[in-house]
Amino acid sequence: MANRFKGEVAIDCEGSRYTLRMDMLALAAFEDATGENALSWAEAAEGGQAAVGDMIEMIRCTLARHHPEADYRLAGDILSEDPGVLLRLFRAASPELAEDGPEDGPGKPLPAPAAG
């Protein structure tokens, strides 16, 4: 049986609880918004090669399933609150990453974005 590419992470931000969902719809929305290949971007982001604006856009896209009213500002607030949320989303969506990678607790940031 094939693994489904879908993962969810819940986060509290400014007194509210949000559920981010990394699935094919979120990836497609990210591609539409940025023109980038989402899977290639995610791989680069895990290595610290992601622009902050793209990270915020990915968060916005992963909020859309459960919070369609979410905007870029909320996504930025969530990323500021918990810089490690994208890494946890990648791992939740791809169980093989969670099995192979080191344990990271909430709030562990992604490597610093590349300057550019």
Automatic annotation (TrEMBL):
InterPro entries: Phage_TAC_11 (IPR021791). It comes from the Bacteria. Residues 96-116 are annotated as: Disordered. This is Gene transfer agent family protein.
